[in-house]
User: Fold Glypican-5 isoform X2 from Pundamilia nyererei.
Amino acid sequence: MSRGICPRVNSVGCFWILSLLTFAVKVIDVDTYSCYEVRTAFQQVGPLNRVPETPVTDADLLFCKHQGPSCCTRKMEESYQFAVKRETLHNIQAYTHEIKHVIAFHVDAFQDMFQSLLSFSQGHLSSLLEGSFPSLSQQALPHVNQLFSSLSLYLRGGNVSVEGEVHHFFNNLFPLAYTRLINPGVEGSIMVGSKMGDCLRMIRPDINPFGNHAVVMAQKLAGALGVGRQLGLALEEGLVVMNATEYARLSKECVKSLVKMMYCSHCRGLTLIKPCGGYCLNVMRGCLACVSELDQPWRRYTRLVEKLTHAMAEQHSLELAMLGVRGHVNDALLYTELHGPLITATVDKVCDLSTGEATHMHPTRPEVKASTLTLSSPFPSSPSSHPSLEELQGQLGHLKRYFLNTLDRYKSFFGMLPELLCEVANDESTCWSRDGVVKSYTGRVVGNGLYAQRNNPEVKVRNVECTVAEAKERLENFNTDTEEMFPELAEMDDWEELGSGKREEGSTTECDDEDGCQASGDGQDKHLPEPSSAGKPLGKHPEGDSPQENPYKPPLVKMIGGSSSASWTQCCSLALLFAGLCLQWILF
Assistant:
C-alpha cells in the first residue's frame, strides 16, 4: 500500500510524511475549534464566564456578525462597548495630559518671572527714594508697595487698571513732594492728612506737577504688562480647551465602529491581527469629527500665543518697562523740584492756602495707611536678595525660546489626533478591515472635521450637538478679543518666519487614497510626542534610562497569552506546506 502511494521512497519515509500530515491537521483542527486565545485576551475586558469554551453557531450578535461559528456572545459585545469607550478616552487623555502639563508649567514659569521682575523693580524704586529723596521715602514706601501689589494682581488676571494705579500712585506722591521737596518748612504730617492733602491729590492731574513723566510711565507699563497679562490668560484658556477635549462624548455609531475595528477579529479567533491604517483613520476621524473642529481655532490660538510671547519679550520690552519705573519716578520728582515756585503759586490759587481750607474737597480714594500696606506687600523693599538684571533677562529669554519651541510641537494637535491614535495600525502586510482579513484597505480615506465625514464609509456621523462646541466658541471669541485688543500682532510675522525653521502644514483635508491622507501630517506633525509616563519629564528620559514602551497605546493588538499558540499554528502551517511539497514531488 505504501509503495503504491510512495513509489520513489521507502516505507519509513512515507510513514513520517503521513504522520506529519496527520499531526498538523489534528493541531489545526483543535485550534480552529477552541476559543482559548479569545478567553485569554478577554481577561482585560470582562468576566471570563461570558466567553464560550468553543465557537458557537447560534450567537445573536449585534456588531460582529459573520458566517460560521463565533467565539463571541452578546454579553461579550456589551463588555467590548465599555472597553472601547474607556480605552479610547484614556488614550485621548494621555495626549491632552501632556499638553496640559506643558501649559501649566509655563503658566507658573511666566508668573514667577513676572513677579521676579516686579520685585526687582520695586527694590530699585525703594532704594532710589531712600538714597536720593530721604525726606519723603518713609511716607512714600507704602504707596510704592500698593502700586506693585496692584501690578502683580493685574498680571495674574485681576480686574485692575494699570494706568489708573500709576496715576493713583502719583496722586498720593504729590502731597509728599509738595511738603517735603518744594516746601519743606510746611508740616507734612498735618498737611498730608488734612483736607489740603485731599485737594493736592485731586488737582494733581490738572496742574501736572510731574510733567509728562507720570503719563509716559503709565502708558509704557500698560502696554508691556498688558501683553504679559494676556499671555497668562491665553495659557489658562488653553487648559480649558484641553479639559473639554478629555471628556468628549463618543456617539453610539462611533462605539459600534470601534468595536468592529478593535474586537470583532477576536470573534474569529484572530487576537493578534492589526487593523488597516486607512480603516483606523476613517473610524477615528468619524469618532473625533467634533473634536477635529477645534483644529483651525487651535492653530489660530497658537499663532496668537507665539506673537504675544514675542511682543512681550522682544527687545526686552517687559523688563525695560518694569525697570524703567525708577527712572520715571526720579525724573518726575526732579521736575517737581525744578518747577517748585510755579507749582506752589498754582496750588495757592486752587487750594486757597491763605485760609487753610481747600476749595475742592472730592478725593477719589482714601489715604493709604503705611502700617497696613507695608505688612501686606508681597515684595521685599531691598533689592539685595534679587538676581541681577542680566540674570533675569537671560532667564526670560531662555524661557521664551523653550516655550515657543515646545508650543510648536502642538500646533496641529487636533488635526493629528486621529493619526496619533492609529499609530499601531498596519499597512505593511495583511490587516483587519471591517469584514475580515485583507491585504490592504481599499476604502476611501476621508479628512478631518464634520463636513468631511459625509463620505466616511465606516462611521455614520449625524448632525448631533458636539460636546466641545462650547469650548470651540469660547476659543474663537478669545482669539477675536485678543486680536482686537492688540491689533499690532497682525503686523508680526509668524514664529516659523522668525527663526524656528519649521513651517506649519495645512490641516488634513479629504483625499482619495490612504497614503495621501497619512502623508498629510508630514513635516512638523511627525514629532508630536508620545504620551509621557507618569512622573517622567516630558519628552526626555533620565540619564541611564531607556525609553519605555508607551503605556497608553490603544490596545488594537493584544499579545496576551497568544504567542505560544501562534507559534504552534505557524509551525504546523509550515509543516503542512512542506509535506504537501514532498507529496507533489513523490507523486508526480
Observations:
- The mean pLDDT is 76.
- The chain has 21 helices and two strands.
- Residues 74-132 form the longest helix (59 residues).
